[in-house]
Design a protein that fits this description.
Elements (H helix, E strand, L loop, with lengths): L4 E4 L18 H12 L10 E2 L6 H4 L5 H12 L21 H20 L5 E4 L20 H11 L5 E5 L6 H6 L6 E8 L24 E6 L5 H19 L3 E5 L17 H18 L4 E4 L10 H12 L12 H11 L27 H13 L10
Helix pairs in contact: 1-9, 1-10, 4-5, 7-8, 7-11, 8-9
Length: 394
């Protein structure tokens, strides 16, 4: 192999910009890259970076309707041309000049990450500008124009990959990816998210959604109650995800790492720390090596605590992708702190930790029916385990 891992990235990906005041601010990606560079996670002695290619319309159309692509292109050329019937021009998805091109560029980056892993150039590859998991085949949704994880997964299938596991750790349900592959037995989608009873998309992401007629058991939804913190979230993850992945035997893991499950995120209601999220990334990395000979494609996703959370969490992700995890006690570099102060007028975090423990109570310790997290775990295990031949009781 030319190297063990890579980041697919260039600065033009940050042109995915819905404008001032929109929560999905591209500066979060720039701050991540700057922090990762200053810590040596990226660069000559760290994770190499390769440029992102542009996805062709034909590649985007492996997931998205051609009529929708044309609608995106029209609004991209003239942002005054709104098409609310396909989600273009809503408050979540404002139109902007160049929208088609940068959205296709993000798709190209995720497909390039998948290609480099599948063709054996690297074991791991990441696209932190990606993870736009809400986009539907025929509509924009939830800040997402084109669904880059879905196109990357479809590329893997079309190029001979037998089985892909998609693990979505965003606080919001990975509804778009689930929708694309709901009746595809070669793809297992697992989404760990806040319950749709209290969070967008509100109508999907319940444990009862388990796959279509040809793929029963291939959709898994672990919907957690508000205020779930590190110990409960990690207990739930480890009570569900590893067993399902082991039973499915994926060839490649594609994961989405929205960090909006953090306690400081302004758009959601879970209570994870940087330390808990880092522990989740380490677990996905370990599962890739245990089950897929290391083949792992990682994307970004949501995350709206732009300066205090996203850059630190995604720098941890990149360091894990690169095989050299950053010690949580590492101080943030002075130059990066100065950048945050200059851009936001407030102090940056002083270290790469929130000072929290990533310890959790293993599922083998027993089920507590009074615990809402345990009830969520049981609901998911009961709905999803039988489809993969697993006993939900164990």
């Amino acid at each position: 192999m030319a190297g063990s891992a890579r980041l697919v990235y260039d600065e033009s990906l940050t042109a995915y910009d819905f404008g001032p005041g929109h929560p999905l601010a591209p500066i979060r990606v720039r701050l991540t890259v700057e922090l990762a560079k200053e810590l040596g996670v990226l660069g000559p002695n760290g994770l190499p970076t390769v440029k992102a290619p542009m996805a062709s319309d034909d590649l985007v159309a492996t997931v998205h309707d051609k009529a929708y692509i044309e609608a995106v292109r029209r609004s991209s050329e003239d942002p005054s041309l709104l098409d609310l019937s396909v989600g273009l021009g809503s408050s979540d998805n404002p139109t902007f000049e160049g929208m088609h091109e940068v959205s296709a560029h993000i798709v190209g980056a995720s497909v390039e990450a998948a290609r480099s892993v599948w063709e054996g150039e690297v074991l791991h590859a990441a696209n932190i500008a990606g993870g736009l998991h809400h986009a539907m085949p025929g509509a924009a949704s939830g800040f997402c124009v084109y669904n880059d994880p879905a196109v990357a997964i479809q590329w893997l299938l079309d190029n001979g990959c037998p089985r892909v596991a998609y693990v979505d750790l965003d606080v919001h349900h990975g509804d778009g990816v689930q929708d694309v592959f709901y009746d595809e037995p070669r793809v297992l989608t697992i989404s760990v998210h806040e319950s749709p009873r209290t969070l967008f998309p509100y109508v999907t992401g319940f444990p009862s959604e388990t796959g279509g007629p040809a793929a029963e058991g291939m959709a898994v939804n672990l919907a957690l109650p508000e205020n779930t913190a590190d110990a409960g979230w990690l207990r739930a993850f480890h009570a569900v995800v590893p067993q399902l992945l082991e039973a499915f035997e994926p060839t490649v893991i594609v994961s989405q790492h929205g960090c909006d499950s953090h306690v400081d995120d302004p758009l959601a209601h879970l209570a994870l720390s940087v330390d808990g999220q880092r522990a989740a990334y380490l677990a996905v990395h370990e599962l890739a090596h245990q089950l897929c000979e290391g083949r792992w494609v990682a994307t970004g996703g949501g995350g709206y605590a732009i300066a205090s959370v996203v850059p630190r969490v995604w720098t941890h992700l990149l360091s894990i992708v690169g095989g050299a995890p950053v010690d949580p006690e590492t101080p943030t570099p002075p130059g990066w702190r100065e950048l945050v102060q200059r851009l936001f007028g407030r102090p940056a975090p002083l270290s790469m930790t929130d000072g929290c423990s990533a310890a959790y109570r293993d599922w083998s310790s027993g089920y507590d029916p009074a615990d809402p997290v345990d009830r969520a775990i049981i609901a998911t295990r009961t709905a999803s385990f039988p489809g993969l031949g697993l006993d939900p009781s164990y």
